[in-house]
Write a structure and sequence with these properties.
The chain has 156 residues and is an alpha/beta fold. It has a single domain (15-155), classed as Glutaredoxin, CATH 3.40.30. 29% of the residues lie in helices and 29% in strands. It contains five helices and nine strands. The chain has helices at residues 45-56, 58-63, 76-86, 99-103, 145-155, and strands spanning 15-17, 23-25, 33-38, 66-72, 91-94, 107-112, 115-120, 123-127, 133-137. The protein has a five-stranded mixed sheet. Strands 1-2 form a two-stranded antiparallel sheet.
Length: 156
């Protein structure tokens, strides 16, 4: 497990498969702010709601020179279906190896009904134009989260 990241740290770079057969590298977005949001699973209620909220504010993020990237351990094929079903207008990165999830410290032990398992802790990281972390939202509650991130992106 990687150490927890802090505001001011250089965001760990990654290159991962993405929806539409593309590949996505964090470093290719230097010069723009990046909202990197980690979510557990495509097409589940909380993750769908979060994606729709970010998508609904995409034009405002664009105006704030900010790219949105959703990242989960699902496959790129799963991302394609999820993106098409909800008309999402931003990239979804597939981290089946969990390398980026571990680098950002969001692949953690979770517990449900007394059963322990490894999973994604819903987290959002705002990365500035210089590649440093500007803000971190751990253990995200979905309602109103995208608007809160947009407000921070406008100030980044």
């Amino acid at each position: 497990m990687a150490h927890a990241l802090s505001v001011g740290d250089i965001a760990p770079d990654f290159t991962l498969p993405a929806d539409g057969g593309a590949e996505i590298s964090l470093s290719s977005y230097r010069g723009k702010n990046v909202v990197l949001y980690f979510y557990p699973k495509d097409d589940t209620s909380g993750c769908t709601k979060e994606a729709i909220e970010f998508n609904g504010l995409k034009a405002d993020f664009d105006k704030a020179n900010t790219v949105i990237i959703g990242l989960s351990p699902d496959s790129a094929k799963s991302h394609d279906k999820f993106k098409a079903k909800y008309g999402l207008g931003f990239a979804l990165a597939a981290d089946e190896s969990k390398s980026a999830l571990e680098a950002y410290g969001v692949w953690v032990e979770k517990s449900m009904y007394g059963r322990k398992y490894m999973g994604v802790e819903r987290t959002t990281v705002l990365i500035g134009v210089d590649g440093t972390i500007k803000a971190i939202w751990p253990k995200v509650k979905v309602d109103g989260h995208a608007a809160e991130v947009l407000k921070a992106a406008k100030q980044a």
